Amino acid sequence: MQLRQSYLFLYNFACALGWTYVISRVGKLASIGYGVENTYSVIKQPFIFWQCFQSLEILHAALGIVRSSVITTFIQVASRLIILLAIVCRVPEVQLSVFFTTLTVAWSLAEIPRYLHYALSLTGGRTTVATWLRYSVFLILYPLGAGSEMLLLYKAMPYIRDRGIWSLKLPNKLNFAFDFYKVCWVLLFLYLPGLPFMYAHMLRQRKKYLSNQHKRRSD
Questions:
Q1: Residues taking part in catalysis
Q2: Which terminus of the chain has a smaller tally of CB atoms within 10 A, N or C?
Q3: Burial call 90-112: b when 16+ CB within 10 Å, e when fewer
Q4: Burial letters for 124-149: b for 16+ Cβ neighbours within 10 Å, e otherwise?
Q5: What is the pLDDT along the chain (219 residues), one digit of tens a residue?
Q6: Sequence ranges of the domains in the chain
Q7: DSSP codes of every residue in the chain
């Protein structure tokens, strides 16, 4: 295995393990009867770490280590970081929300098969189950995750408006004003065309990859 392949295998396998750890902590909370209001306090550190760790994928695309669009990868990673770091980490109300738990479940269960699929494909081994999961679990998890993001964003907006989170008001030395509350409204409305567009794109990807897999098995 070449150096590039070895690195990507280790990266993807580590990410699969990391997200497995995150979802296992959520499962443990549920098994001992803890409420959803405890999810954030328990998984905060590993959740933030593995989501920030995913930023390396922008670098992978930029350096040509993987054949992915830099812009698309940046948008996907940045949108999650905005929700997590700019919204969830700053607004106590959303940390206690059931929608943070559903967000965690959706992101974790979507990432585990994705990273396993990539890791196994680098070894040249059979990826039938991992590939099917990679291109099937999104059917439920993408609406769950995107819906949770929208609801967390909406729920956080009164807090952001009242406290001026991430905003800059005039007068100031920069002579520049920035209203993050208005940005949140823009982000919220972008979900409306963005969600069906991305869902349709993933459906096409599912058809393409699962059809190819079926052909290889037939051969």
A1: 142, 149
A2: C
A3: bbeebbbbebbbbbbbbbbbbbb
A4: eeebeebbbbbbebbeebbebbbbbb
A5: 689 999 999 999 999 999 999 999 999 999 998 889 999 999 999 999 999 999 999 999 999 999 989 998 999 999 999 999 999 999 999 999 999 999 999 999 999 999 999 999 898 776 788 889 999 999 999 999 999 999 999 999 999 999 999 999 988 888 999 999 999 999 999 999 999 998 998 999 899 888 876 565 555
A6: 3-218
A7: --HHHHHHHHHHHHHHHHHHHHHHHHHHHHHTT--GGGHHHHHHHHHHHHHHHTTHHHHHHHHTSS---HHHHHHHHHHHHIIIIIIITT-HHHHTSHHHHHHHHHHHHHHHHHHHHHHHHHHT---HHHHHHHTTTHHHHHHHHHHHHHHHHHHHHHHHHHHTTT-B-SS-TT---B-HHHHHHHHHHHHHHHHHHHHHHHHHHHHHHHHHHHHHHH-
* Alpha-carbon span 185 to 111, nearest angstrom: 27
Residue reference for tokens 């109300």: 93
